[in-house]
Design goal:
Helix Hairpins; 2 domains; 254 residues; two-stranded antiparallel sheet
Length: 254
Amino acid sequence: MTAQNQNGVAKEMPIEEKLKLLYDLQMVMSEIDKLKILRGELPLEVQDLEDEIAGLKTRINNYEDEIKNLEVAISNRKSAIEESKGLIAKYTDQQNNVRNNREFDSLSKEIEFQNLEIELSEKRIKEFSAELSTKTEAIEESRKQLAEREGDLERKQKELEDITSETKIEAEKLADKASKIEEQIEPRLLTAFRRIRKNARNGLAVVTVERDACGGCFNKIPPQRQLDIASHKKVIVCEYCGRILVDKLIDPQA
């Protein structure tokens, strides 16, 4: 990041100012993190419930399709039974007018075949009806679960909305403040800050030296290294955790 002197000539921003901006940005981002912590696990819980509800709806749709197919299959089997009964009546009537035993035996085989078709259809109807009953019970259970989960989701969303509403103004102010600080930080440093912060478990990319140790990972920092940090002549990172190190003089609260 560069600035201009009184003669309008561009000059490099002092390292101390860069460190101060990075530290200020960290403080603001930490405040934003605190607001997110207030929401706790609610965003994840809401997402999980939404996913579960979507899964239940898909399951119910699949059951409904399967039930329709079973109903069609049962209807087709019933129609097949009526058709077979009609054929049996027809063949039986024809037996009364046969001219020889050969024709009579042939019609008897047709009648026997149609009786077997009726038995098979009745068996399939029984199987389909049992499956239909099972699917109907399953779909009712799924609908019950869906109603419960939708109730849970409504409550969780209300809790999340209440918390978000309570902190909305403060969150917007902090976001605006962070944006203004970021505009003053050179892209290279800002990219490094974001990368370090993303990899840090507690979101701390810039930490102060606390009791001769890194304020992030708490590993000891050699005296000479501490002098380099205090000189504000270059950006120094912890050799253990990679966080940017600053001394307490950077912190206005110190």
